[in-house]
Amino acid sequence: MAEISNIEIGRVKAFLLGLQDSICAGLQSEDGGAVFVEDSWDREEGGGGRSRVLTNGKVFEQAGVNFSHVFGRKLPPSATAKRPELEGRDFQAMGVSLVIHSNNPYVPTSHANVRFFIAEKEGEEPIWWFGGGFDLTPFYPFKEDVISWHQVSKAACDPFGDDVYAKYKKWCDEYFYLKHRDETRGVGGLFFDDLNEWGFEKSFAFMQSVGESYLQAYLPIVSKRKAMKFGERERDFQLYRRGRYVEFNLVFDRGTLFGLQTGGRTESILMSMPPIVHWKYDWHPEPGSPEAVLYDDYLQPHDWLVG
Predict the structure, then answer these.
(1) Which of 76, 189, 220, 270 has the most CB atoms in a 10 Å sphere around its CB?
(2) Which is catalytic among the residues 101, 111, 278, 284?
(3) Is residue 69 flagged as an active site residue?
(4) Which parts of the chain have pLDDT scores under 70?
(5) Mind listing the pLDDT tens digit for each residue in 153-186?
C-alpha cells in the first residue's frame, strides 16, 4: 500500500475541520434560536479535539458535532482484536462525528460520521483507511422523507460506481441493527469502513462526498417537519424510542468503544446520548396505532428506492 504523506494527512484534517464548521452553521441556522458552544480538549497520550454542542434550541433539544484527532503508540483491544497486523504500530485517528436529537417527535434523530485512520511502523508500509456514513432514526416516519434521504445517499455514491450505494446501504442496515431487539435502529442510510482499495485520492473524495451530503439529506426533512403539532403521547413515544439509541451506542457501536479504550474525552464520546430518555417494561404499540407503523413498516431493511 502506498505511503501517505503528512501533506495528505493535513488535507484530510483541514477538510474535517471545515466540515464541522459548515455542519454547525447549517444546523444553527435551521434552529434559529440556540448557538453551538465549543469546548476544546487535549488528550494526555496525544492529540485532542473540539466538541460543539447546541442545547435547548427552538428545533434541536441537543445537537453535538465533534472533531477529534488522536494519536499514540498503542492501539486498544477494540482495534487489534480482528486486526492483529496493527499491533506495535503508531496510529493516528481523526474524524467528525455528530448526533442530532430534536424537540419535535416528527423530526427524526440523525447521525453522521466520517473518519480517517492510519497506523505506521518503521520499515513497513502504512495501514490506512477511510470510514463513515449517516443514518436516520424517525419516530413517526413519512415515506417521502425516507425516500428523499436515500435519494441523497445514492447521489453521494453514484460518481464512484454503480454498485456503491447498494453495498454501503446494505452495510448500514446490517451495522445499525439491534440484535437483541431484532430491529434496525432506524431507516438506514450509508455505512462504510476499511476503505482503501480505491487508493488515497478516490477514497478521500468519497469520504468528502458522504460528509458533504449529510445536510443535503437532513435539513429538508427538518424544515418540513419542525412546525408540526404534537402532544404528550408523541413526546412520550419519542422518549421511549430514544432508549434504543442508547442501547445501540453502549452495546454495539465501534466508535464509542474505540473512543473510550483510547482514553478519549468521555463527555465528547457520550454526547451522542439523548438528554431525556424513558424505558418501559415489555411495552408494545397498540395494533393499528401511529406508533405501530414504525414497527410494522420501517424497522426492517427495505429498498426504499424501488417502493
Answers:
(1) 189
(2) 111
(3) no
(4) 1-2, 76-82, 262-264, 307
(5) 999 999 999 999 999 999 999 999 999 999 999 9
